[in-house]
UniProtKB/TrEMBL annotation:
Its EC number is 1.14.11.61. Keywords: Dioxygenase, Iron, Metal-binding, Oxidoreductase. InterPro entries: DIOX_N, IPNS-like_FE2OG_OXY, IPNS-like_sf, Oxoglu/Fe-dep_dioxygenase_dom, Plant_2OG-oxidoreductases. This is feruloyl-CoA 6-hydroxylase. It comes from the Eukaryota. It comes from Coffea canephora (Robusta coffee). Its cofactor is L-ascorbate. One of its GO terms (biological process) is response to molecule of fungal origin. Belongs to the iron/ascorbate-dependent oxidoreductase family. The lineage of its organism: Eukaryota, Viridiplantae, Streptophyta, Embryophyta, Tracheophyta. Pfam families: 2OG-FeII_Oxy, DIOX_N.
Length: 357
């Protein structure tokens, strides 16, 4: 059988892409001309040109002076209105950003047997794992992406067991990103009249960091597939570094309109997640977004998901209710929310609906 005519039964596809760790990189390397049926979106879920908003854009905020009240106001406004914005002049050297993107290339260019050492059943530590799609055993349609996910735990020795070709670059990026994460949350919380991030709030909003090196290989049928289906993140915030290929779209003002988040060299995309929407009692909005794939170029992104600690109880902050507002959300243990999110395929903002009273 020629490479161009390779076909998979569903069980064979799951075995090849998921169990054997070949992922969509392996499919792309086969030279297939048509993606397997399991990756094809139903027509109603495909993003078409008519849905791309031409008159809306995502705010790009210069944060070179964090103490400027206008910057704080711009960030809070963008978080409330759109749930997404980009920041520039944030202080992370361009070299650090380029190095962590290059780390993705280095890892996914490793021989197959080297990459497979980081599959869940093989990985030397649960804090680093090679994965494909989102939740491949639960999804109706698989996503055209592979990624290496890292759970960062301060002062934890397990990071020494991360892949040597990418470990140092990821840790250096985290080192530079942590103060920016904290500053962003401080400004957003001041907008809720929360005066200080104490240990309790730190656990509630930034108790754990997940850093992914995401690889979207060239797709032979990009109009039929998705790099990530429409969804909101369950994090407090997500810090996203993207390359110049583009493909990230966020919900526009109209329900059926999508705004392309145009890549800006050196910028970081900030997505508001479900947790911040919940603790703010809907003052801030978690942004629904999706990712398209490309038929000519590989795409790279590096998100940092800023999550609560697993055992943290999450619910509206008292400060968000000081004017007499009724709480929209109940209190829940974050691990329950997290596990439900990953127990199913991506589905818009379904998870946050379960948290409502």
């Amino acid at each position: 059988m020629s490479a161009a005519s390779v076909e998979f039964e569903l069980t064979d596809l799951i075995d090849f892409a998921v169990n054997q760790g070949n992922g969509v990189k392996g499919l792309s390397n086969l030279g297939i001309k048509t993606i397997p049926q399991k990756y094809i979106l139903p027509p109603e879920d495909r993003l078409n040109q008519n849905q791309i908003a031409q008159d809306e854009s995502i705010a790009v905020i210069d944060v070179s002076n964090w103490d400027d009240p206008k910057i704080a106001a711009s960030i809070c406004e963008a978080a409330a209105k759109r749930g997404c914005f980009q920041i520039i002049n944030h202080g992370i050297p361009l070299e650090v950003l380029e190095n962590v993107k290059e780390a993705r290339h280095k890892f996914f260019e490793l021989p197959d047997e080297e990459r497979r050492k980081y599959l869940k059943e093989n990985s030397p530590t649960p804090t680093v794992q090679l994965k494909t799609s989102f939740s491949p055993l639960a999804e109706k349609v698989l996503e055209w992406k592979d990624y290496l996910t890292h759970l960062y735990i301060p002062d934890d020795e397990s990071s020494k067991l991360w892949p040597s070709v990418s470990k140092d670059q990821v840790l250096e990026y985290i080192k530079w990103a942590k103060p920016i994460i904290r500053k962003l949350l401080e400004l957003l919380l001041k907008g809720l009249n929360v005066k200080k991030i104490d240990e309790t709030i730190e656990s509630q909003l930034m108790g754990s960091l997940y850093v992914n090196l995401v690889y979207y290989p060239v797709c032979p049928n990009p109009e039929l597939a998705s790099g990530a289906g429409r969804h909101s993140d369950i994090s407090a915030i997500t810090i996203l570094l993207q390359d110049d290929v583009g493909g990230l779209f966020v919900q526009g003002t109209k329900a059926d309109q999508w705004i392309h988040v145009t890549p800006v060299k050196g910028a970081l995309v900030i997505n508001i997640g479900d947790v911040l929407q919940i603790v703010s009692n809907d003052r801030y909005k978690s942004v629904e977004h999706q990712v398209t794939v490309n038929g000519r170029r590989n795409r790279v992104s590096v998100p940092i998901f800023v999550d609560p600690a697993a055992d943290t109880v999450v619910g509206p902050f008292p400060e968000a209710l000081e004017s007499g507002e009724k709480p929209i959300y109940k209190h829940f243990v974050y691990s329950d929310y997290f596990n439900y999110f990953f127990s199913k395929g991506l589905g818009r903002k379904q998870t946050i609906e379960l948290a409502k009273k």
